[in-house]
Amino acid sequence: MGTVSPDLPFSLVWIGACREICHNQEMNDSPSGASTGPNSEATGRFIKKAVLLSWLTISYNIIEGLVSVYFGISKESIALAGFGLDSFIEVGSATLVLWRFRSESAGVNATAVLELKKERIATTGISILFLLLALVTFAGSIYKLVNVEYPISTLPGFIVASLSLSFMYFLWYEKRVVALALNSATMMKDAACSMACIKLSVILFAGSLLYLVVPELWWADSVAGLVLSLLIGKEGWDTFQAARSPEFSGGCGCEVKATE
Length: 260
Fold this sequence. Notes:
The chain is mainly α.
């Protein structure tokens, strides 16, 4: 890794380092055309990595959720409290991933039929969490518009949003690497859930900065939240239909199967 300029913000340096680590990990762990069956060494490493990422996701989002809800209530900010509730949805998604790979991570070989069944159940569960996230985001945006609630302009809000942007980006990147390696719909949709949280963090952070510069645009983040809720809802519904389809294969391309 090259020399890092001292003028770069720490968050950017950290993200760059994470990206390099992810790239190196992908090169070292990639099956590279080798056997990827249940007993392969490469598959076992990726399954363990999926479990580790899930625990990191659960641990971080529980802390983020509790902190956001606490400061949201104490500062009377529905936006920050709602952001905390979104974190617990991410916890639910990661928990489903843990359940999906629990037996494999312990060295128990599952049959192809059982693996497909677990992929279907876990992917369906994550799709429902997507729909719940869309509902919470939509309701929160409507509430803020109706009650003319301004975006957060407190230090805790900025800190929470900044940390979420950096750490959730790292988790999203790593989850996609694992999802592609394992060809797992469950892992890919969990990565998509992390990306949805990243987008919500961007709205929270950008909306607050925009309000500080142009107070007349206090409604911008709420409108962006409404649009994002529709996109999240669509992905949740498409994923639900794909997971319930007889043609569901359990792979990363399950959403294509649903539209064929």
